[in-house]
Every structure is written in structure tokens, then in C-alpha cells.
């Protein structure tokens, strides 16, 4: 198997195993944010939806062995958080460390749960990528 294909299979396997760690990171970040301010449910929900929504294109990137598609999916989180912060939280006076921490917490909790629940699917995808290479 060529190194490029092996790289994408390895990414899928690492992703399949990352669920508990992402969930823990999200709980810590969300907890830090909640300790400073009341939960901003809309920011948390938006980031959680983004976390799940970016997984399908990311897996398409793995299947097509496209670094560009995967990179764009991974970059969508900080870019979206910056847009939410600048365009929505800042004008309302709500751009705080607590809100940003809560948004990241929502993102990572949703992403962790997604990876936990789809671990078997992601491992099968890694096997398919290996067979295709």
C-alpha cells in the first residue's frame, strides 16, 4: 500500500479511537466556560451542529484521499467560531472567554460523542481505504 493511502487509513483509525478524549476535552472546556458565565445555549448548539456536520465531508476526503477536503473540514471549526464571535457575539457585547470556551466545549462534546457512536463505521471505512490502495 502506498504511503498516501496508509496515511488516510491511519487518520481514520486515530479518529475512531479519539472519541473519549474529545469528549473529555469538551467537558473540561465547557465546564471552564460555565464556571465564568451562564451557558450560552445557542453558541454551544451551533458549534455542536458544526462538529457533526463536518464529519461527512471529512470522511469523503478520506475516501478520495484528499488532504484539501480534510483540511477544510478541520479549519471550519476555528473559522466558524471566529465568525460567530465577530459577527454575532461581539456586536451584542457577549464576546467573552466564557462564551468561546463554551462554544469549543460544545464542539468537542458533540465530536467526541459522534466518534464514540460511529467507531465501528469509521474502522470499517479505514479497512475500505486500505483495500482501495
Q: What can you see in these coordinates?
A:
- By secondary structure, the chain is mainly alpha-helical.
- Helices cover 86% and strands 0% of the residues.
- α3 runs antiparallel to α5.
- It starts with a helix and ends with a helix.
In whole angstroms, how far apart are the ends? 5 Å
Mean pLDDT: 91
**Structural class category:** mainly alpha
Q: Give the strand content.
A: under 5%
Helix content: over 70%
H-E string: HHHHHHH
The biggest beta sheet is recorded as: none
What's the gyration radius in Å? Answer: 16 Å
Index terms:
single chain; 133 residues; mainly alpha; 7 helices; 86% helix; elongated
Task: Show the helix and strand layout.
Elements: H1 3-17, H2 19-36, H3 41-53, H4 55-64, H5 67-89, H6 97-117, H7 119-132
Helix pairs in contact: 1-7, 2-6, 3-5, 3-6, 4-5, 5-6
Brief account:
The protein is built from seven helices and no strands. It has 133 residues and is mainly α.
Amino acid at each position: 500500500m502506498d504511503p498516501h493511502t496508509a496515511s488516510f487509513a491511519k487518520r481514520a483509525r486515530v479518529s475512531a479511537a479519539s472519541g473519549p478524549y474529545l469528549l473529555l476535552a469538551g467537558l473540561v472546556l465547557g465546564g471552564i466556560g460555565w464556571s465564568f458565565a451562564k451557558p450560552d445555549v445557542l453558541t454551544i448548539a451551533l458549534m455542536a451542529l458544526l462538529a457533526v456536520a463536518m464529519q461527512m465531508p471529512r470522511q469523503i476526503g478520506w475516501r478520495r484521499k484528499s488532504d484539501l477536503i480534510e483540511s477544510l473540514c478541520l479549519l471550519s471549526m476555528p473559522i466558524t467560531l471566529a465568525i460567530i464571535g465577530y459577527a454575532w457575539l461581539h456586536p451584542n457585547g457577549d464576546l467573552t472567554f466564557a462564551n468561546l470556551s463554551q462554544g469549543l466545549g460544545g464542539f468537542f462534546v458533540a465530536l467526541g460523542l459522534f466518534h464514540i457512536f460511529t467507531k465501528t463505521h469509521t474502522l470499517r471505512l479505514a479497512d475500505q481505504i486500505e483495500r482501495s490502495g
